């Protein structure tokens, strides 16, 4: 950053958080290195509510902007300049549509009122014509607004109107889960916990329990400074903002969250603690060895979920997150909304 006098940063939030975490170790040196930074674009995932102020403490001249949209609608369609972050916010506002584009929040085609959650649709001049050679996908994702007759792109994201006319992002439709009859938006749990100074990152998940029924759990990465939050601290914070059925039954501590090459949280790589316990117990019965078929033969190796192995994997992951540049920060992020249906911001 210092050598090249970088002025513009454009990544998913997780990569910026890696930089900030590293820079906070030597703040005076970091301030000098980041003094040229004037503009920061963040998109592709949730922005932790604490991240903008942490960055501004190191790069006070930088303007921070939240961006979102879809490849099918000219990549960026909505923005929000991040100024002062209200302590009561659970998420950074998604913002307002860019010029020449429009955002709609619909529930089964009916416009949603203020505060009502619905699916986000994008309209305007940036819409693509089709998925080439895939008419079924085209008809499923590009629809016609019943009232206006205009084409819209169905993003697969959830949101709601705020009273100031901007949109609040609520996550992906596929991150809504149903547990014990209650529909739960996992992103609300994440954002509530990430407001705590003791929590650097949090990701809620629904995983099969020992009886294969879905269980609500949450992965938590502790802040590098201060005391770690206890389970009681996490529960108390959630109880202040969320109903009882949205309180996870278990909190799993990780040194870092797995990320994809473009800097988004890799939900598929998160471990199931219930399976890990079962695998560990099974491995103990077999002398800490697991049979694995190789080339038609049977061989053995230490179970990857044995306690020693798990600590080693976690420590390696932690080191890879803490070394700057190891994830290719300069690599261009593939924007959300692309055809593989990865989460958008």
Describe this protein with a few key phrases.
alpha+beta, 29% strand, 345 residues, 18 strands, 4 domains, GMP Synthetase, Chain A, domain 3, five-stranded mixed sheet, Luciferase, domain 3, Rossmann fold, six-stranded antiparallel sheet
Annotate the secondary structure layout:
Elements: E1 8-11, H1 13-23, H2 27-33, E2 39-42, H3 51-58, E3 63-68, E4 78-81, E5 96-97, E6 101-107, E7 110-111, E8 118-124, H4 135-141, E9 142-144, E10 151-161, E11 167-172, E12 176-179, E13 182-185, H5 186-193, E14 199-208, E15 214-222, H6 231-241, E16 250-253, H7 273-285, E17 289-294, E18 297-302, H8 307-322
Parallel strand pairs: 1-2, 2-3, 15-16
Antiparallel strand pairs: 3-4, 4-5, 6-7, 6-8, 8-10, 9-10, 10-11, 12-13, 14-15, 17-18
Helix pairs in contact: 1-3
Distance between the termini: 26 Å
Q: Main β-sheet, in a few words?
A: 6 strands, antiparallel
Give the name of the CATH superfamily of the largest domain.
Answer: ANL, C-terminal domain
The CATH architecture term of the largest domain is: 2-Layer Sandwich
Describe the structure.
The chain is of the alpha+beta class and 345 residues long. It has 4 domains: 1-68, Rossmann fold, CATH 3.40.50; 90-175, Luciferase, Domain 3 (Luciferase, domain 3, Roll); 180-269, ANL, C-terminal domain (GMP Synthetase, Chain A, domain 3, 2-Layer Sandwich), CATH 3.30.300.30; 273-314, no CATH class. 23% of the residues lie in helices and 29% in strands. Strands 6, 7, 8, 9, 10 and 11 form a 6-stranded antiparallel sheet that branches. Strand 2, helix 3 and strand 3 (63-68) form a beta-alpha-beta unit. Helix 1 (13-23) crosses helix 3 (51-58). The longest helix has 16 residues, at 307-322. The protein is globular. The chain starts with 7 loop residues before the first strand and ends in a 23-residue tail after the last helix. Mean pLDDT is 81; it is low at 287-344.
């Amino acid at each position: 950053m210092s050598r090249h006098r970088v002025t513009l940063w454009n990544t998913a939030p997780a990569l910026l958080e890696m930089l900030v975490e590293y820079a906070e170790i030597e703040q005076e040196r970091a301030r000098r290195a980041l003094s040229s930074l004037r503009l920061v674009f963040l998109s592709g995932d949730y922005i932790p509510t604490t991240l903008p102020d942490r960055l501004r403490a190191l790069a006070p001249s930088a303007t921070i902007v939240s961006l979102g949209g879809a490849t099918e609608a000219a990549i960026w369609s909505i923005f929000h300049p991040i100024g002062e972050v209200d302590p009561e916010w659970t998420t950074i506002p998604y913002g307002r549509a860019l010029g020449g584009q429009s955002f709609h929040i619909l529930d089964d085609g009916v416009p949603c009122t203020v505060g009502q959650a619905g699916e986000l649709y994008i309209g305007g001049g940036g819409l693509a014509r089709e998925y080439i050679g895939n008419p079924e996908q085209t008809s499923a994702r590009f629809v016609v607004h019943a009232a206006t007759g205009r084409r819209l792109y169905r993003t697969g994201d959830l949101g709601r109107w705020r009273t100031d006319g901007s949109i609040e992002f609520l996550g992906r439709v596929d991150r809504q889960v149903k547990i014990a009859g209650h529909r739960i938006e996992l992103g609300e749990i994440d954002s509530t916990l990430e407001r705590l100074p003791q929590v650097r990152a949090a990701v809620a998940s629904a995983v099969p329990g020992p009886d294969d029924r879905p269980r609500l759990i949450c992965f938590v990465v502790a802040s590098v400074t201060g005391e770690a939050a206890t389970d009681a601290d996490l529960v108390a914070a959630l109880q202040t903002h969320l109903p009882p059925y949205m309180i996870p039954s278990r909190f799993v501590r990780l040194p870092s969250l797995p990320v994809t090459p473009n800097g988004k949280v890799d939900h598929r790589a998160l471990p199931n603690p219930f399976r890990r316990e079962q695998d560990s117990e099974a491995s103990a019965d077999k002398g800490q060895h697991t049979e694995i078929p190789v080339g038609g033969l049977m061989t053995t190796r230490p179970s990857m979920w044995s306690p020693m192995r798990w600590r080693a994997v976690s420590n390696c992951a932690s080191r890879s997150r803490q070394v700057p540049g190891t994830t290719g920060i300069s690599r261009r992020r593939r924007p959300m909304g692309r055809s593989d249906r990865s989460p958008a911001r």
